[in-house]
Amino acid sequence: MASFSIAVAFGVRLLLVMLFLPFSALDKILNFRGAVGQAKQAVHATAPATALILAGLFVEIVMSLGILTGIADRLAAFILAGYCGVTALLWKQFWKPGDFWSGGKGRELFWDFWKNLALAGGFLLVTFGTGASTVESFVSHPFASSKPYRISETAR
């Protein structure tokens, strides 16, 4: 049963990060010019757009690995939650196209916006846990691991 429990814990974490590692990170690497072009929609200049993509790559790869390995996983999840929120605000601006009620681009972005925020909520569950008693633990020790693959003695 311990192996199954560890596999489930890993599988849940993998589902949370799979969008970023490997898919989004690989897309940024293989289509770097296109990724910079998309970033230029928000910052309008090549140098800051390139910096945003490189920062995004770093966050997507390093924070995803932190969540998967359990190394500073709560801090990594907190950073990825912020990343999801920022990307929702910068690239999923459903209010801008002005065609929300006619079923255009605004409506499509609306759902992407909320999916980003929902994913941020999943990362915040990794960060803070499922109960109020675990919030103080993160605030006092943000670099600590949640030890996601440890099997407690009482669970055996």
Structural overview:
The protein has 156 residues and is mainly α. 72% of the residues lie in helices and 0% in strands. It has 7 helices and no strands. Helix 5 runs antiparallel to helix 6. It starts with a helix and ends in a 16-residue tail after the last helix.
The H/E string reads HHHHHHH
Which secondary-structure class do the elements indicate? mainly alpha
SS strand fraction:
under 5%
Query: How would a textbook summarize the main sheet?
Result: none
What's the pLDDT, averaged over the residues?
92
Number of helices: 7
Rg from C-alpha positions?
18 Å
- The coarse silhouette is globular
Assign a percent range to the helix content: over 70%
Through-space gap between termini: 8 Å
State the total count of DSSP E strands: 0
Low-confidence runs: none
List strands and helices in order, with pairings.
Blueprint lengths: L1 H16 L1 H12 L1 H12 L2 H24 L3 H19 L13 H24 L6 H6 L16
Helix pairs in contact: 1-4, 2-3, 2-4, 3-4, 4-5, 5-6
Q: What structural keywords apply?
A:
156 residues; mainly alpha; 7 helices; 0% strand
Structure at a glance:
By secondary structure, this protein is mostly helical.
